[in-house]
Amino acid sequence: MKKTKAFLVTLALFGYTSILPAYTTSEINLRNDAAKWIEPYANQVVYVQTQHLSENPLTFQKTSLAAKMFVTSFFEQDVPLFGTKVESNTGTGFFVEPGLIATNFHVVSKAQRIWVSTKDGRRVQADLVGFDERLDLALLKVEIVNIAPLVWGDSSQVFPGDMVAAIGNPYNLSWSINIGRVSGALRPSAQSDLPFLQSDVVINPGNSGGPLLNEKGEVIGVNTRILSTSGGFMGIGLSIPSNVARITLKNIKNKTSSTLIEIGASLQTIDFSLKSYFQIPPETQGVVITQIEPNSFSEHLQLKIYDVLTHINDNPIETVTNFGWILGKIPARETVTIRYIRNGKLEKTIPVSPQEWVATQDVTEKPLKSTDPKRPQPKDRIVVKKLENSYDETDQNPPAGLFVQYVTDQNYIFDGLYPNDTILSVNRNTIKDPDEFYSVLEKEENKPILLKIQRNKAKPFFITLH
Predict the structure, then answer these.
(1) Which of 32, 235, 296, 375 minimizes the number of CB atoms within 10 Å of its CB?
(2) Is 395 part of the annotated catalytic residue set?
(3) Which is the catalytic residue, given 208, 239, 242, 258?
(4) Alpha carbon distance 139, 403 (integer Å)
């Protein structure tokens, strides 16, 4: 014990302060009071789950029923679907208006059905209002209007060292709260010419689309990605700045053109050595074009490789990050004029509005795959047979019900109804006649239907058809 005390005293004498807490007393109190600070805002955060069908290696679509039953006899609950399989994705979202939820586009990009769960226990299907793939933002609509939206903050007033918190669903651990600090404001990303907020808040798969909150509980960013070599959190999380997200989501809602336009060029911040080569005064700042994409906005502006861009609409360009930020704040209808240096001469582009240029381009977004609202008749969605015609005749005590031969409705597959299942009851009633089953499906079209299912002689379980 004496040696330990002496060691600590020695550390103190020689100025080793790294063993001391990195946080001030007020910050420690703020962390301790996190429940009071952040937890109330969790009610406006939702858990987003998606489902979609993809190809299954077990493609026995044309195989005989007997062969299919032989294959499925090796499984219990997780029976493979022949030709397709159900895949899911999870993420986070938050209310930006009553009934409207913001999330990341990559959370719902493959979705054929989207579920939203609230902290008070409600679970509803969501419709995709629209999305911006470049900014990785999407807007969802739900029939929940009694949850107040979160308030947007000003991301331009966020600085390194600011305390922030994230609410999300990492690895399906719903409504997890993590607290940290802003590590860097308006960082560029290799995937975008627009800046991101960098923080050390723990962000893992499932946090995508969730809010980054300041000490006032205002949304200053939308958590979107991490920088990692392992796939897990390594101390660097990136969030879309609120000032960009707010405008983009508003445009998605109003079905208007995004105010953010892709320049269509690779840029590099000019340093001292490049200034020397291009014979640019040391005090001049800007970015040099290293590559131009065909049919891009840059090509339309008649910019060329080696051009050094110095101003956008009289706003000085300092770095690549600064360039993306300035361009991102220009309204779609406002004209853009870029000043640049070419071969030592100062020139400028002709004024062009992004909206006018977009109108000349083929920028029609491909809609996400979704279920046709006009659903086919029940007999076209699922094929069931009388159980006595399909079940194993050697079974001494065959169950009563219906045998599922085929399922063509993807919604039923998402609900967990698979070929070769045995339907023991429908809405608590035993049904042996296929026509009676189809009649229930038709009459209860807009209501959940409770099915009792048996799969491969395992214990029965319940599912609901929506």
Answers:
(1) 32
(2) no
(3) 208
(4) 40
